[in-house]
Structure of TetR/AcrR family transcriptional regulator:
Amino acid sequence: MNLRERKAAKKREDILRSASLVISRQGYHNATMEDIAAELLMTKGALYYYFKNKEELLYRCHDLILTEAKEKMEGIVRMDVSCEEKMRMALRHHIEVAIREKEVFNLIVKPETTFSQDNIPEIIKKRDEYAGLFDRIIDEGVESGEFEVPEKKMARMIILGATNWIQVWYSPEGKYSPEDVEEIYAGQLLKMLRKIS
Amino acid sequence: MNLRERKAAKKREDILRSASLVISRQGYHNATMEDIAAELLMTKGALYYYFKNKEELLYRCHDLILTEAKEKMEGIVRMDVSCEEKMRMALRHHIEVAIREKEVFNLIVKPETTFSQDNIPEIIKKRDEYAGLFDRIIDEGVESGEFEVPEKKMARMIILGATNWIQVWYSPEGKYSPEDVEEIYAGQLLKMLRKIS
Amino acid sequence: MNLRERKAAKKREDILRSASLVISRQGYHNATMEDIAAELLMTKGALYYYFKNKEELLYRCHDLILTEAKEKMEGIVRMDVSCEEKMRMALRHHIEVAIREKEVFNLIVKPETTFSQDNIPEIIKKRDEYAGLFDRIIDEGVESGEFEVPEKKMARMIILGATNWIQVWYSPEGKYSPEDVEEIYAGQLLKMLRKIS
Amino acid sequence: MNLRERKAAKKREDILRSASLVISRQGYHNATMEDIAAELLMTKGALYYYFKNKEELLYRCHDLILTEAKEKMEGIVRMDVSCEEKMRMALRHHIEVAIREKEVFNLIVKPETTFSQDNIPEIIKKRDEYAGLFDRIIDEGVESGEFEVPEKKMARMIILGATNWIQVWYSPEGKYSPEDVEEIYAGQLLKMLRKIS
DNA sequence: AATGAATGAGAGTTCATTCAT
DNA sequence: CATGAATGAACTCTCATTCAT
C-alpha cells in the first residue's frame, strides 16, 4: 500500500469516525451527510467519493466498530483464565465500547430501521458472531461447573441487554465513572450466572 | 364531558393506538403522518385537528402507553405479597408491555433523538416515575432482607436494560412464548437480586 | 365523476400539457420538475401529488399524445375512401401532430434513453399499434392494386421517418405553412407508394 | 507537427472515438465524462487537458463525424455517373453512417438541446453544407430531366428524415442487413424522385 | 500529461404542515 | 370535522469542473 492509498484509507477511516460521532450525537436519521462532512470540514460531495451512499457509509461505520470490538473480544475468549474472569473482562470491554460508541451501537442492534435488505444479513451475521463469543464463555462456564443457567441464549440476551442499555442512561457528568459501572455490572451479572452450591 | 367531547376523546385515543402500531412496525422515523392516518382510513390533514404536530402526537402516544404501564405497575407495588413475588409480577408486566409495544418503548427510552427540548423533561419525569416503582420494590426487598445489591440504581438499570432489550430480539415466530421469556428472565434476574445466605 | 374528480383530472391534464410544452422547448433532460411546475405557477412538490415521479409524469405525457393521435388515426383508417385518400389524410394528421408536439414525439421514438425497463414495453406496444395503422393502409393499398412496394415495413419506416423529421427543421417563422408541408409531403410519399402501370 | 503534437492529436481523436461510442450507447445526457474517460482507461480529469469542457468535446465529436461524412459525400457528388447512380451511392453512404453512429447523429440533428449558443451556428452551417450536397444531386437530376420534384428542399428533407430515422429502429439483430436496408431505401426514394414520363 | 481529490450547483424526491372549502 | 391540494424546506445523490501534486 503506497502513500496515496494509505492516505485514502486514512481518510475513509476519518470519515467513519466522524460519522460515528455525528450519529452518536444526533441519531442516524437526524445525521445528514452535510453534518458528517462538516465535522471534517469537507463538503458532502466529497463523501460520495469515498462511499457510494449514506447507507454504505453507515454500514462501513458499524462494521468498523463491530469488527474492532469482536477482535478484542476474541482475544479475551482465548485467554487462559477462569470463565468467571473471562466474563468479567468481556463485560468490561463491552461496556466500555457501549459507552464510547452509543448510537452506532444502536445501528448494530436494530438494522431493520436503517439498512436495506442487501446489508442486513451480513450485519446480523457479524452481530451474531460477536454475541456468539459471549455464548462461548457461558458454555465453557457451564461445562466447567462455574456457571449455571436455565437457558443459555436468554442469559446472553440479559447480559447484552443490560449492558447495551448503559449507553441510554450513562452520562460522563454523572456520579459513576465508567470503571464503577463496569465493576458493579460485572458483579451483578456474574452473580446471576454463578452456580450456587 | 358531553357526547361531542367524548367522541373526540375516543378519536384521539384511536389515533394514538394507530400511531403506536405504525411506529412499532416501521420505527419512528419511517412512520409518516400519512401512514398513521391511513391505518385509520383518515387523511393526514385530519390528524392536525386532534394534535398540533407530529411530535405532540408522538408525545401523547408514548404518554398513553407509559401511563397505562405505570398504573398497572403501581397496583403491583401496592400488593401485599413478598418482594420477590412483587418483582416477579413487575417483570412479567414490563416484559409483556415491552414485547407488545416495541418501538414506542424506544421513544420512551431515547427521547433526545425524537423530542424537542420542550417535551423531554416531562418525558424523563414520567419515565423516572415508572422506573422508580422498580426502585421501590428493590428498596423494600433490601430492607426486608430478601434482596442484596451493591447499588440499587444499577440493579434497576440492569433489570430495565435486560427487559427492554427483549423487543430487539423477540419474535413471535421464534421458539419462545412470551410466557417462557417472562419466566426465565424473572428467574435469572431474581437470582441476581436475591440475598445469598 | 363528481366535481372534485373532474377538477383533479383537469389538473392532471394541465400538468401533462405543461410538461409537453416545456419538453418541446428544452428537451426531456433539460426540463426540470421545477420548470414544468413553474409553467403552471405551481411548486414542484405539488407535481408529486399527481404523479409519482418524473418518469411517470413523462410517461403519462407521451401516452396522452399518442393515444389521441391513435384514436384519430383509427377514424381515418375506418373511413370509406380510396387508400390513396386514406394515406393522404393519415399523413396530414401525423404531420400536424409532429409539428405541434415536437419533443414529446421524440420520447415516443426513443424510449430507451428516457424510460426505465418497466415502462418501455408498454410504450413500444402503443407505438407499434400506432405505426400498425399505417401498415394497414399500405396493406390495403397493395391488395387493391393502388400501391406497390418492395417491403411494407420499410415503406412505413420511410414514411414515419420522413414525417417525424419535420419537427426537427420546421419553424412556424419559415416560408412554409403547415398545410404546405402536408401537401408536398403527401404528394411525394404517395408517388413513392403508387403502382406505376 | 512534431512528435509531441502528433501524439496529442492522436489522443484527441481517440477521445472523440470513445465519446462517440459512449454516446451512441447511452445517449448524450446519460454519458458522463467519467464514462467517456473510462472507455479509454483514463480519468476524467485528463479529458480537460484536451478539451475545455463537455460541450467542446461533444462539439468536436460531432464535427469529426460530420466532416468525414461530408468529405466522402463530396467525392460522390464529383463522380462522373448519372444522377440516379449518384443519389443511390449517397443514400448508401448516409445510411451506413447513420447506422454506425446512431446517437452522435442525433447531436447533429438537434443541436439546440445540447449545445450552447456559441456553437450552434457553426454546427448548423456544417450540417447545411452536408445537406447541401444532397441538394446538388437533386438539382443536377432535375436539370438533366432524371428527377422531378415539387419542392427541392422538401424532397431533401424527406430523404434525410427517412434515412436518419433508421438509427431509431435498426437493430443488427433484426432480419435486415445494412445492405438490405440500403437497397430498399434507395429503391423507394429514387422512385419518389424519378421523373415519370 | 495525468491523477486523485474535492467542490458546488442543482436535480429529484419526501414529508410535516397549512388552509380553503 | 374532514378532505384534497399545495407549500417549502430539507435531504440524498450526481456530475461537470477545478486544481495541487
User: Anything to note?
Assistant: The domain at 59-193 of chain A is CATH 1.10.357.10 (Tetracycline Repressor; domain 2). Chain A has a mean pLDDT of 91.
